[in-house]
Amino acid sequence: ADEPLILGIETSCDETGIGIVRGHTLLANTIASSMDEHARFGGVVPEVASRAHLEAMTPTVEAALAAAGLRFADIDAVAVTAGPGLAGALLVGVAAAKAYALGLGVPLYGVNHLAAHVAVDELEHGPLPKPCIALLVSGGHSSLLLVPDVTGDVISLGSTVDDAAGEAFDKVARVLGLPFPGGPHIDRAARDGSGTAIAFPRGKLDDGTLDFSFSGLKTAVARWVEAREAAGQGVHVPDVAASFQEAVVDVLTRKALQACRKYGVGDLLIGGGVAANSRLRALAQERCDAAGVRLRVPRPGLCTDNGAMVAALGSDLVAAGVEPSSLQIPADSSLPV
Ligand code: KG4
Ligand code: ZN
After folding, report:
1. What are 109-155's pLDDT values in tens digits?
2. CB 3.0-4.6 Å disulfide test: which of 19, 33, 116, 219 passes with 311?
3. Is 178 a domain residue?
4. Number of domains in the chain
5. What is the domain-level CATH number for residue 232?
6. What SS3 state is found at 219?
7. Residue of 44, 86, 114, 169 to mutate, ligand 1, most atoms within 8 A of C-beta
């Protein structure tokens, strides 16, 4: 109970996420999403997201404090996503975090969004193994990271050269007439289909790198659907969804295990919104078991963007004695890991 109480603020995309943690204990994880406002545009509109963050910030912080039965005065440090993400959206969170830190007289920690996606798993499964390999897959990023220590330098081993995995899910969903964001809809549709019905391409599968490519796959699915429709043949959505999904998770899991082997690391963590995918979780478990690698995947609610992940990393930084950030810290939309 003597560990410091950390308030975490996440505004890198469309979620205003406020988390409160003490050590690795999650006390509140409150989210206001502007996704409904973006859905009709088929993607997140930065200006709309920024404005929504501004309106949601105070009520969401107050809701998180109320959920945890705490007051402002209980907070010992504020952590905020400093990047990467949408510039205007990040600015709202960073400005709010500075105001709270200054007003409360507590230290401020600007954190990396990708590292926070890794650290969040500690709230569910305890301290991270050091080192671990992390596969982060979301609408904005698809990366393989070597994480010697989440409070220090995180090394990028590979990333997508075009679309992020979640972006591919969202674009293919649109081709199939499923709502945005499409990932969960494809996941659901795929349960009634066969992953081997259609042989879609696996980009960069055996190219010797740990990079990904999903835009060729997305195009292949669109062409396949167009050709079927032009020929007057029906499209069995569950089979297309399952076969597309299989192509994505086949490459993701193979490359993640290649990274484990190459760096001699026995622990793999999967995070980001796409880690909520049921087939990814199942295939990763199967392949990790076969390779003798321990797998950690946070529950779906912690995989998608949230404030608890930021608070979790902030808590680790405080515990590690890392210097707080200056109140001049910028929001950096292209912050590297
Ligand atoms: O991490 P996240 O909430 O936000 C970003 O930082 O992008 O990830 C959102 C992405 C979206 O592309 C969404 O379609 C995808 O994660 N996603 C899924 C599933 N749930 C969310 N993709 C595949 N299967 C799912 N079950
Ligand atoms: Zn994210």
Report:
1. 999 999 999 999 999 999 999 999 999 999 988 999 999 999 998 99
2. 19
3. yes
4. 2
5. 3.30.420.40
6. helix
7. 169
